[in-house]
Amino acid sequence: MPASANNPLLLGFGPFKLDPQACELRKGETLLHLPPQPCKVLALLASHPRKVFTRQEIQREIWSGDTFVDFDQGLNAAIRQIRAALCDDAETPRYIETLPRRGYRFIAKVGERPAAAGSTPLTVAAESATHSPPTVSRASLFRRPLTLAVSFALAVVAVVLVWRMARAPVETPPAQIQSVAVLPLENLSHDAEQEYFADGMTDELITDLAKIHALRVISRNSVMQYKGKHKPTPQIARELNVDAIVEGTVMRSGDRVRITAQLIEAPKDRHLWAETYERDLRDVLSLQDDVAQAIANEVRIKLTPQERIHLASARPVNAEAHEAYLRGLYELHGTAAETTGTLRSQSIEKAIGYFQQALAHDPNEALAYSGLADAYSDLSTNYRAPLEVMPQAKAAAVKAITLDDTLAEAHASLGYVSLMFDWDWSRAEREFRRALELNPSLPQAHAGLADYLLFKLGRSDEAIQERQRAYELDPLLPRSGLAWLSFFARRYTESIEAAQRLGHDDPILALCYAELGRRDQALAEADRAVSSTRNPVILSRIAFAYALAGRADKARAMLGGIEAQARVRYVCGYNVATVYAALNDKEEAFAWLETAYRDRSD
């Protein structure tokens, strides 16, 4: 039956019905979400079953010449979205077959019927029949054997079809998804200068998803280690211990940005959902919110009213301020953050410069203040005296919260300042718990609460449980935090177990063995650690281990170099004091403790 403007055709295949004109795909009576562009591609292929369409033919039929995103990426995303909607598999397709270097074709049987025909069944070939009262004639007697033969043949065909349907793969619903990891979004511009933007978009999507309490979201620290790597999705999921993976691309062109995201059920490597979003740079935060809400809907997580408010309250941003903020994040947390020593200090200073630049464009940019708080805190102890930078960290965190009380990272920063610098215990606990109320997937808030529970309350079991939660959210985080927490709780065997993944530049193993009286092992670990660092904090800890293990000569020899560094740069007085205490030099130990107190060392 030919289609007309008033009587368009519906296409039926398997359990699906497609209305090309309304761009609606249904499975039974359920309306499936399929964006317009993928819907047009599906309609083109399904309207011509078994016909091979080259990519160039699809481009001419569907894509306009002024399309923003490049065609190859757009078509690849469309095919992924179609397969996700149909629960189809590229390796063993039932609907869309890929022919390498040729194109695509629709391989399922397609039926048609008029859209206005209501419940009329879909058929491949329409037949009409007239019915009259049954009569028996001589001719009918001769036709009966033929009729019986046809009936028998149809029965055999029916049995074969039932057998084949029983052997066909069953569409199993997705498993319950309670944890996800957002892999670094691919920078489609292939311009290294735009890497900060792609990483920033990844950061913000992780932050948005982490606001959903029913979903465990892996931190950016762990997922960024997969940037530029092409491991199988199930392997990544096993390493991060998640149910699903979110991956995608980002492309920026002038004042426009486009993100394509897809959700993959990790154990089966099955695509569940895919979507493309394009917005003006001013609306980039609402774009991220839309992606997060779509993923929450797809994994069937019911958002609380408060979560819906958080994900629907994005404001327009100042494009220049937001760009400077993303550059600051890249220096603070991105690839540049992998450096150490002087280079690391320089990266933090560059991040501070970018955050200040963002505030010059928009003095009310709460995210930039939150970034400043983290940057100043990162400088403390290892690079600058706490008294020099922590007041600035506190002021930035307070300002960020004043502008936007929903920023979990700012609350965690203020909690850290309150605990380590102000020694304001009640405020520290309050800020850490507020951070976790806003973002239960924030590792630094769990780590901060762990420090509070141990150092203030002495509740080591609860403290270690909080640290373990941080590692569940950041599985690839080095275990130094847990090792030191166990060490300070005097649980030396547990500290050793946690430290097994650390490099030998950290003296925690030497200290644990020394405390346990295992002198030879302590000295061996100290010898290994001392050969790979010039950091005065680490050197002080190694000297402390030598002193505990009975090698006072080595400890005193190291003290000379450490105190020489202290004359030209900041060195934490507490760490030096522990060495003198282990050497039973009480006068020098108290002198360095007074220095640490004056500097408000953490």
Look at the structure and give the CATH class of the largest domain.
Mainly Alpha
Low-confidence stretches: 1-7, 117-144, 159-171
CATH superfamily of the largest domain: Tetratricopeptide repeat domain
> What's the β-strand tally?
13
The CATH architecture assignment of the largest domain turns out to be Alpha Horseshoe
Q: Which fold name is given in CATH as the topology of the largest domain?
A: Serine Threonine Protein Phosphatase 5, Tetratricopeptide repeat
Instruction: Provide the residue-averaged pLDDT.
Output: 83
For the sheet with most strands, the description reads:
6 strands, mixed
Gross morphology: elongated
The Rg value, from CA coordinates, equals: 32 Å
> What structural class results from the helix and strand content?
alpha+beta
Q: How helix-rich are the residues, as a percent range?
A: 40-55%
Quote the distance from N terminus to C terminus.
80 Å
Query: How many separate domains make up the residues?
Result: 4
What is the beta-strand fraction? Answer: 5-15%
Tally of contiguous helical segments: 25
Description:
By secondary structure, this protein is α+β, with helices and mostly antiparallel strands. It folds into 4 domains: 9-117, Arc Repressor Mutant, subunit A (Orthogonal Bundle); 179-316, TolB, N-terminal domain (Rossmann fold, 3-Layer(aba) Sandwich), CATH 3.40.50.10070; 335-477, Tetratricopeptide repeat domain (Serine Threonine Protein Phosphatase 5, Tetratricopeptide repeat), CATH 1.25.40.10; 499-602, Serine Threonine Protein Phosphatase 5, Tetratricopeptide repeat, CATH 1.25.40. The chain is 54% helix and 11% strand. Strands 8, 9, 10, 11, 12 and 13 form a 6-stranded mixed beta sheet that branches. A 5-stranded antiparallel beta sheet has the order 4-3-2-1-7, with helices on one face. The longest helix is centred in the N-terminal third of the chain and has 30 residues, at 138-167. The protein is elongated, with a radius of gyration of 32 Å. The chain starts with 8 loop residues before the first strand and ends with a helix. Residues 1-7, 117-144 and 159-171 have low confidence and may be disordered.
